[in-house]
Amino acid sequence: MSSDGSPSLEETVFRAHAVSGAFVKAVKEGKWRVASVNWPIVMVKIAPAIREGAPNSFSFRFDLTGYPSSPPTARPWSADGEGPLGDGRWPSGGQRVSAVFNPGWNNGVALYLPCDRLAAAGHPNWVTQYPYWIWSPTDTICKYLRIVHELLNSNEYSGIRERQS
Which of 41, 119, 151, 156 fits a disulfide with 94 by CB distance 3.0 to 4.6 angstroms? Predict the structure, then answer.
């Protein structure tokens, strides 16, 4: 918020994106939903494919500082909103899924994606390697959400790292 209590320009842009046609369509299709906004932190629940022992949604804590000029960064978060998701509860699966959802990378503070602010910072080669996944200031949060949703609904997604009995 600005000093007068009104939303910042970044928050206003995010909120406009969150009521856009593409965002609302995905919400209606059950792909994702905003759980809370405490600017610049936005909690989003994303629905994965149904897998035994896995949750029906994963919570992600997005830091949207500088949005949309600066890329978002996100990490899996506990469903109760109390803290980071435990390593064993992270999504798992094939090569791409395991690479993106890697709690061992950078201490689990971000997803290993070209559109993530923290991951992209150390990978200048991604601009040519993964042009579709690179963040642009003209992108909306839908880009990041769409990539995560697609991975969680791919044949490579197998559930969570550790199944509880």
Answer: 156
Average pLDDT over the chain, rounded to an integer: 95
Is 115 marked active-site? yes
HEC-encoded secondary structure of 31-94? CEEEEEEECCEEEEEECCCCCCCCCCCEEEEEECCCCCCCCCEEEEECCCCCCECCHHHCEEEC
What the block records as the tokens of 137 is: 């200031």
Q: Does domain 9-160 match CATH 3.10.110?
A: yes
Q: Are 76 and 84 in contact (CB under 8 A)?
A: yes
Number of other CB atoms surrounding residue 158 within 10 Å: 17
Beta-bridge partner residues of 159: 92
Bridge partners (DSSP) listed for residue 157:
93
Catalytic residue among 42, 115, 145, 147: 115
pTM, rounded to two decimals: 0.94
